[in-house]
Amino acid sequence: IQPGPLTGKKVVITAGPTYEAIDPVRFIANRSSGKMGYALAQAAAEAGADVTLISGPVALTAPIGITFLKVETAQQMYDAVMSHLAQTTVFIGCAAVADYRPADPAPTKLKKSAKDDLSLQLRLNPDIITAVASSGERPELVVGFAAETDDLQHYAQQKLQHKGLDMIAANQVGDGLAFGQDNNALEIFWEGGHKSLLEAPKLEIARELITLITERYHAKNSI
Ligand code: C5P
C-alpha cells in the first residue's frame, strides 16, 4: 500500500439505509443504494486511511482492505458506530438512517384486516451523527450528508449547525436524482466556506470530497 494524505488516520463511515421491522416480513426504510458511502470508503482507503465501513442492508460488496460491519437497524448502527469511535480522526455519516422505528414490532406476520385505514405507532431513533459530534471521543472532523428535495442550502446549513458538524455534503434528491444513480453532484458547506462538486461518477465525487476533508483537517490543525 502506498502512503497517502490520510495514512495513519482512522476514518469511520456509515452507508446505506436502515431497516426498521414492522413485523418479521415488513419494514420501514429510506431509499439508499449505499453507493456514495461505499465510494467514500474506497476513496478514503486509497488516501491511506484505516477505514471502518458500517453499512445497512445494500446489494454491494465492500471495498477490499477495510474493516466492514453490516447492521440492519438504526439502533444497531448507533451501537456499532459508538463502539468503533475510539481514536477516529474523521467520521462521515453517509447512511440514510430511518428517523423513526415501529414502536412495537409484531413477533408474527400481521394479517390484513377489513379496515380501510391502519395506523402505526412510531418512536424516534437516536440521531447517530449528533451523538458522534457531541461524544467525549469526538473525531476531529465530523462530516454529514443532507438529501434535500428543496431549499438545499438553507436546510444543509441548518443541519450543519444543529448537529454540530464540521462539514455537510448536500445533494438534491427527487425526480430520479441521486438515489441509486451512479452519478452524483454535491454542495459542500462548512463554517465560512462552500464548494460545489459538479455531476460526476460517485467514486470521482468521493475522491474530491476526501481531498476536501483532508484540506479541512489540515486547516483545523494548523491553527
Ligand atoms: O436530518 P437528516 O436525516 O437529513 O440528516 C442527515 C445526516 O444525519 C446524515 O449525515 C445522516 O447519516 C445523519 N443521521 C444520523 N442518524 C439519524 C438520522 C440522520 O446519523 N437518526
Automatic annotation (TrEMBL):
This is Coenzyme A biosynthesis bifunctional protein CoaBC. Residues 6-215 form the DNA/pantothenate metabolism flavoprotein C-terminal domain. Keywords: Decarboxylase, Flavoprotein, FMN, Ligase, Lyase, Magnesium, Metal-binding, Multifunctional enzyme. CTP binds at G93, C94, A95, D99, K109, P126, D127, I128, I129, F145, K159, K163. Pathway: Cofactor biosynthesis; coenzyme A biosynthesis; CoA from (R)-pantothenate: step 3/5; Cofactor biosynthesis; coenzyme A biosynthesis; CoA from (R)-pantothenate: step 2/5. Binds 1 FMN per subunit. Its EC number is 4.1.1.36, 6.3.2.5. The keyword Lyase applies. The chain holds residues 184 to 406 of 406 of the full protein.
